Amino acid sequence: MFPTVRVSFSGIELDARYIVLLDIVPVDNKRYRYAYHRSSWLVAGKADPPSPARLYVHPDAPFSGDQLRKQVVSFEKVKLTNNEMDKQGHIVLNSMHRYQPRIHLVIRRDPSTANAPVTDLESERYRSFVFPETIFTAVTAYQNQLITKLKIDSNPFAKGFRDSSRLTDFER
């Protein structure tokens, strides 16, 4: 996912264990298109049926409360796809639809359950966090070449798209 969602936490119990999860939910029931002449997104109809929601568990979980207090948790390894048949555990989104990432913080006070997987969020003790400024429109291709270049240069999974002939000696 680009740009990357990064969060930090405060006010947590230092002796507890935590699992940090991310999911991405539709914002509305509309499909969008980009109007180049207006440089804006326009409603283009009713949304496609949403894919089943998937929870992405941060790969470094569980965290101690002390770890969470001292570090920024980054979701740079999250992978998004529009392939509804995905079997890799990627988060499936519909292109040209608007989405809201959500962060869920699950607390595990019992050390014997600290490493147990989260299979049903509603059966856990948790808090969810939503940041309205992270709403985005999912796309499969950028029309703006500067945005395409920024994504390729910033995305660790886009190595195959980088043209080594345009790199400086320092970058090589």
List the helices and strands and how they pair.
Layout: E1 6-7, E2 17-26, E3 30-35, E4 40-46, E5 56-57, E6 63-64, H1 65-70, E7 73-74, E8 80-81, E9 91-92, E10 98-108, E11 126-130, E12 136-137, H2 145-154
Parallel strand pairs: 8-9
Antiparallel strand pairs: 1-7, 2-5, 2-6, 2-10, 3-4, 10-11, 10-12
Protein name: Putative T-box protein H15-like protein
GO cellular component, one term: chromatin
Subcellular location: Nucleus
Question: Under CATH, the topology of the largest domain is which?
Answer: Immunoglobulin-like
Query: Low-confidence stretches at least 5 residues in length (pLDDT < 50)?
Result: none
Give the full name of the CATH homologous superfamily of the largest domain: Transcription factor, T-box
Oligomer state equals: single chain
Give the tally of β-strands. Answer: 12
Any guess at the CATH architecture of the largest domain? Answer: Sandwich
Average of the residue pLDDT scores: 86
Subcellular location: Nucleus
Main location: nucleus
GO molecular function, one term: RNA polymerase II cis-regulatory region sequence-specific DNA binding
Pfam family, one: T-box
